[in-house]
Design a protein that fits this description.
The protein is an alpha/beta fold. About 40% of the residues lie in helices and about 15% in strands. Helix 1 (about 30-45) links the parallel strand 2 and strand 3 (about 50-55). The longest helix has 20 residues, at about 220-235. It starts with a strand and ends with a strand. Zinc ion binds near residues 32 and 141.
């Protein structure tokens, strides 16, 4: 288990990660990145890291209302995702790949798109879903995880997608959130509130994902906050930290 606090300057023998200059996070849906790595991204942004969000699907199934206007929901969720990025300290830079929610595949076309954004933004660190997490039900999360891993490989090797006309790029680290076997914890003490604010920016998801039927219902918002804080405490506890986010770290890219 390795840990990385804000004070860590360089990747050393402990495996601690330096604050990246640019981090690119890939999620299946709007809100996945905030759940998986929001506090880590907020910590890095506070130290000057540029954040780029990549959302693979259009989020058009993120409602329990059978009569919802889905075209409007897609636009709403894009706005919410930009707000969430800003709540983490980012500029709101979000790439929406727009694949239909629930129907994401990890084929060659999707891999091309992920490799292209990695080559375009040239991040030091890429983050995404762990595709190898056991008993994961949602297919989009599995596929987004495989796209993250496969996209890094395609972006780093010069002979992949020669028609892309973008120079190849090798990130220095890949962090997989919701990890099946976490081996790296980022110390996120002080950044829980940014994560919670970013999650609450996904207002259309309060009911279906966060258990908040009414944003004015303080006890429901409080219960959600406690849930997030409990997860940060649990993951931090893996490395003896008060609050942390746990990842599978792959640094031999
Ligand atoms: Zn999701």
């Amino acid at each position: 288990m390795t840990t990385s606090g804000a004070a860590d300057g360089l990747a050393g023998p402990s495996g601690a990660l330096a604050i990246p200059r640019r981090a690119l996070a890939i999620g299946a849906h709007p809100d996945d990145i905030e759940f998986g790595a929001g506090a880590t991204l907020a910590k890095w942004a506070a130290s000057g890291c540029e954040l780029v969000h990549v959302v693979c699907t259009d989020g058009s199934k993120g409602t329990w209302d059978p009569d919802e206007d889905l075209a409007r929901l897609v636009v709403t969720r894009q706005r919410e995702q930009r707000d969430a990025s800003r709540a983490l300290g980012g500029t709101g830079e979000v790439v929406f790949l727009g694949w239909p929610d629930g129907e994401l595949e990890s084929g060659i076309r999707q891999r091309y798109e992920i490799a292209a954004v990695i080559r375009r933004f040239r991040p030091d660190v890429v983050l995404g879903h762990d595709p190898w997490r056991r008993y994961r039900l949602h297919p989009d999360h599995r596929h987004a995880g495989f796209l993250t891993v496969d996209g890094v490989v395609a972006a780093r090797d010069p002979h992949f997608f020669p028609e892309m006309a973008l120079p190849h790029h090798r990130p220095s680290a890949l962090l997989l959130f919701e990890a099946d076997e976490p081996d790296h914890v980022e110390d996120v003490s002080g950044f829980a509130e940014a994560k919670i604010s970013a999650l609450l920016a996904h207002r259309s998801q309060l009911r279906s994902t966060m258990g908040v039927d009414d944003p004015g219902a303080d006890h429901q918002v409080k219960a959600f906050r406690e849930e997030v804080l409990g997860t940060l405490a649990d993951q931090g506890g893996l490395a003896g930290l008060v609050q942390g986010e746990a990842f599978k770290a792959i640094t031999d890219l």
